[in-house]
Specification:
mainly alpha
């Protein structure tokens, strides 16, 4: 991608709010199906975690391997993130998901940079990510952090897109690792208590998790809006 004038802002494209709506509708449909077919007994979180723990080290290893190959294969990351909380709990779910997602993102980045540059560039043609390299040239690794802080950006495609920009691999790796921690923590904590719904219980931990998800989704957008208004005020 050719370098041109600096873009007006740090965003790599406007996030889509269709995704959270689809997630809510899907979750509602799953709850209805679980209660309709009386599957509640199989979706008790402690029972599932004991089952995974029985496999010892293999449980986390398999989860990390799946996370590593998922982004290069264009598999969505949200189901795996939610699975991390459900299967491993809030603490280890965050640890395994953060490192697994970072490994998968890094693998996709390296594939794009060294093996599939032209294919990725063709995929980005006509999309909002086409000018990503311009934004990286202006903001550096900060644009990687920004896109990781907002869960509505296309996580899988972004991993490939950054691979053909001028951001360094160490910069991408560290920005991805630390940039994903807030969103990962919120979604994993939420999913760690999500199965309470299938038991007919709305726990305090579930509500706290939901609040965390809302906060991490809205905070970067509110920050961007405040920054834009401040910039507009400075022009007067």
């Amino acid at each position: 991608m050719a370098k041109s004038a600096a873009p007006p802002g740090p965003a790599a494209g406007k996030p889509s709010f269709l995704r959270p709506l689809m997630f809510i509708l899907l979750l509602g449909a799953v709850i209805v199906l679980v209660h309709s077919f009386e599957l509640n007994q199989y979706l008790e979180k402690e029972r599932l975690r004991r089952l995974v723990a029985a496999y010892g080290l293999w449980g986390p290893v398999i989860f990390l391997v799946i996370w590593t190959v998922a982004p290069p294969l264009f598999m969505p990351g949200l189901p795996l993130t939610l699975a991390g909380g459900i299967l491993f709990g809030p603490f280890w779910g965050v640890v395994y998901t953060t490192f697994g997602a970072t490994a998968g993102a890094s693998l996709a980045f390296l594939v794009a940079r060294y093996f599939a540059r032209q294919w990725v560039a063709a995929k980005l043609t006509g999309t909002r990510l086409e000018r990503l390299d311009e934004k990286v040239a202006f903001h550096g690794w900060k644009i990687v952090v920004f896109t990781r802080l907002i869960p509505f950006f296309p996580y899988v495609l972004l991993n490939y897109a950054f691979g053909i920009t001028r951001v360094s691999f160490p910069g991408f790796l560290l920005a991805t690792l630390f940039g994903m921690i807030p969103v990962t923590t919120a979604f994993v904590y939420f999913s760690a208590n999500l199965l309470d719904l299938f038991q007919g219980e709305i726990s305090r931990e579930l509500l706290l998790g939901l609040l965390l998800v809302v906060v991490v989704c809205l905070a970067p957008l509110l920050y961007k809006r405040i920054k834009r208004r401040k910039a507009e005020g400075d022009n007067f």
